[in-house]
Amino acid sequence: MLSFVEENYLKAIYHLSEAGKRSVNTNSLAEEMKTAPASVSDMIKRLSEKKMVDYQKYRGVNVSGKGKIKALHVIRQHRIWKVFLVEKLNFQWDQLDEVAEQLEHIKSPLLIQRLDEFLGFPKFDPHGDPIPDENGQLIEKRKDPITQLPVGTAGIVVGVNGSSASFLKYLDKVGISIGTRLQIVDRMEFDGSVDVTIDGKKTITISPTVAENILLSEA
Amino acid sequence: MLSFVEENYLKAIYHLSEAGKRSVNTNSLAEEMKTAPASVSDMIKRLSEKKMVDYQKYRGVNVSGKGKIKALHVIRQHRIWKVFLVEKLNFQWDQLDEVAEQLEHIKSPLLIQRLDEFLGFPKFDPHGDPIPDENGQLIEKRKDPITQLPVGTAGIVVGVNGSSASFLKYLDKVGISIGTRLQIVDRMEFDGSVDVTIDGKKTITISPTVAENILLSEA
DNA sequence: AATTTTTATTAGACTAATCTAAATACTATA
DNA sequence: TATAGTATTTAGATTAGTCTAATAAAAATT
Ligand SMILES: [Mn+2]
Ligand SMILES: [Mn+2]
Ligand SMILES: [Mn+2]
Ligand SMILES: [Mn+2]
């Protein structure tokens, strides 16, 4: 059984390696975990002994087969808890992570199974990220920033880049959240501002920066 | 901030001291915590330095003012989570504690406040134990085993003694759970068996042992 | 190709939480 | 009230996870 700390490292390695595609160097992991590089070296050695990561000194680290499954398991729990916090307890987006970081480590297969059921087997979390199934399978869905879609396109908001409190507050104010349907009705040539219709009702103009950070998925 | 382990010790001291009424000796605490007495001595010293317990060597330990509030805070979270597990996720009574022991340590005042609200501000947990409020205030309610109540009495099931799986299964089968209304309609002199009416509907006979372990509170 | 800079690992120390074994204090009983 | 027995504390070790400082390897620059 892995400790909370080991689970957090494994998750960080998984994310930094972009789902296992490339290996992760010690310093970036140290930055991510907010620890000293020396601590990372120690921990990698331990995870390596437990066959959770593939590691060669000075060559970087990556999740092993076992480690990837474990990481996806933690990610699954993290995202399911987020759905719960938003859907049932009305949490704001910026209050989610602190709590989900703790809840993701609760050890009880029954708990997460029942919670998943209680929430109606959600496929995406409130940030639009896909929830792995019990076996670690991910349904990947195309997510494009509004800036990269042509005028006329309609889609569902499935995520946002970044999570600054002020940005999220702005989205709340104009009535955009995960699940909102947006249609791109115009794009201004001179600065890239975009007119979008929200849920078929009102139309607003968003700045290019905002457009760049809202992710749509084919409706 | 206290660690999980410190919180568990504090809760155990609170319980074993019967809410702070008498001091607790090292061995009983060691038994409760399933650790060596030496480990208990170490931990007590630490909690004492943090002013969470009152302690004099060889004289036993008890919760301090601060410690009692902290213990009640953890107990509050434990019991609120139990309500959630039973009411929302349909957990069985015997599956509760393992998970609630973990969930009670999640650090987020907002989480427990919202959860409490989501559950409709419950006053008792599924075992019939009262839930302390945010300030650690407890509403104590008389709980009497059926054996000690006269024929004619009606009341709500607010708890059970013990929690053997087979006993709980029996209660499920006959349709008795927390919140069920029972009326005592007869008591057999020769063996103490009791006839009770369940929720005003059917009447069944329960053995003296069962009667002894079901706790009623004035309706 | 040699040198400098960056990155990563080891050395050694610290705290929390645990253990076993040894020492000490309290309690009960003769 | 001395002694035996029990309860409790201390001594000393261990493991997880962390740190700083020192060393070593790899990469980048001259
Ligand atoms: Mn976490
Ligand atoms: Mn010690
Ligand atoms: Mn606990
Ligand atoms: Mn080391």
TrEMBL record, chains A, B:
<protein>
    <recommendedName>
        <fullName>Transcriptional regulator MntR</fullName>
    </recommendedName>
</protein>
<dbReference type="Pfam" id="PF04023">
    <property type="entry name" value="FeoA"/>
</dbReference>
<keyword id="KW-0678">Repressor</keyword>
<feature type="domain" description="HTH dtxR-type">
    <location>
        <begin position="1"/>
        <end position="64"/>
    </location>
</feature>
<dbReference type="InterPro" id="IPR036390">
    <property type="entry name" value="WH_DNA-bd_sf"/>
</dbReference>
<dbReference type="InterPro" id="IPR036421">
    <property type="entry name" value="Fe_dep_repressor_sf"/>
</dbReference>
<dbReference type="Pfam" id="PF01325">
    <property type="entry name" value="Fe_dep_repress"/>
</dbReference>
<keyword id="KW-0238">DNA-binding</keyword>
<dbReference type="InterPro" id="IPR007167">
    <property type="entry name" value="Fe-transptr_FeoA-like"/>
</dbReference>
<comment type="function">
    <text>In the presence of manganese, represses expression of mntH and mntS. Up-regulates expression of mntP.</text>
</comment>
<dbReference type="InterPro" id="IPR036388">
    <property type="entry name" value="WH-like_DNA-bd_sf"/>
</dbReference>
<keyword id="KW-0963">Cytoplasm</keyword>
<keyword id="KW-0805">Transcription regulation</keyword>
<dbReference type="GO" id="GO:0005737">
    <property type="term" value="C:cytoplasm"/>
</dbReference>
<dbReference type="GO" id="GO:0046983">
    <property type="term" value="F:protein dimerization activity"/>
</dbReference>
<dbReference type="GO" id="GO:0003677">
    <property type="term" value="F:DNA binding"/>
</dbReference>
<dbReference type="GO" id="GO:0046914">
    <property type="term" value="F:transition metal ion binding"/>
</dbReference>
<comment type="similarity">
    <text>Belongs to the DtxR/MntR family.</text>
</comment>
<keyword id="KW-0804">Transcription</keyword>
<comment type="subunit">
    <text>Homodimer.</text>
</comment>
<dbReference type="InterPro" id="IPR022689">
    <property type="entry name" value="Iron_dep_repressor"/>
</dbReference>
<dbReference type="Pfam" id="PF02742">
    <property type="entry name" value="Fe_dep_repr_C"/>
</dbReference>
<dbReference type="InterPro" id="IPR050536">
    <property type="entry name" value="DtxR_MntR_Metal-Reg"/>
</dbReference>
<dbReference type="InterPro" id="IPR001367">
    <property type="entry name" value="Fe_dep_repressor"/>
</dbReference>
<keyword id="KW-0010">Activator</keyword>
<keyword id="KW-0464">Manganese</keyword>
<dbReference type="GO" id="GO:0003700">
    <property type="term" value="F:DNA-binding transcription factor activity"/>
</dbReference>
<dbReference type="InterPro" id="IPR022687">
    <property type="entry name" value="HTH_DTXR"/>
</dbReference>
<dbReference type="InterPro" id="IPR038157">
    <property type="entry name" value="FeoA_core_dom"/>
</dbReference>
